[in-house]
Amino acid sequence: MDRILDRHDWRILEAMQDNGRLPLSELSERVGLTKTPCQIRLKKLEEEGYITGYHARLNMSKIKKTMWFSSRSSLRQRAAVILSNLTPQSKKWIPYNPAI
Question: How much is the pTM?
């Protein structure tokens, strides 16, 4: 059965959700504990499954052009494979598109 989280646990979870790369010294200060008890609680929250990982937030406006190119390229490759596997009879029903 899950244990009842106290105010320090909740503060740790909130701080780590805001910034998973928070240094222990800053985390302990925000939580109101010294470093060692804060580190023990953090480890316990990880071991008990309250914290399941640390993730990066991506700036989609920076990478969307790369993603668009990559997906477009993948679609072209997939379309070429599909078209090469069609029978001559079924190819008659697909409009010609020289871009593929």
Answer: 0.59
For residue 82, give Cα distances in angstroms to 6, 73, 88.
Answer: 57, 14, 13
- Along the 100 residues of the chain, how does pLDDT read in single tens digits? 788 999 999 999 999 999 999 999 999 999 999 999 999 999 999 999 999 998 888 787 777 665 555 555 566 667 777 767 776 766 666 665 555 4
- CA dist 42 and 57 (Å) reads 21
One-letter amino acid for residue 96 of the chain: Y
CA–CA gap between residue 16 and residue 81 (Å, rounded): 46
How many CB atoms within 10 Å of residue 84? 7
CA distances from 69 to 7, 47, 78 (A): 47, 40, 14
> How many of the other CB atoms lie within 10 Å of CB of 20?
13
Percentage helix, strand, coil for the chain under 3-state DSSP, each rounded to 5:
60, 0, 40
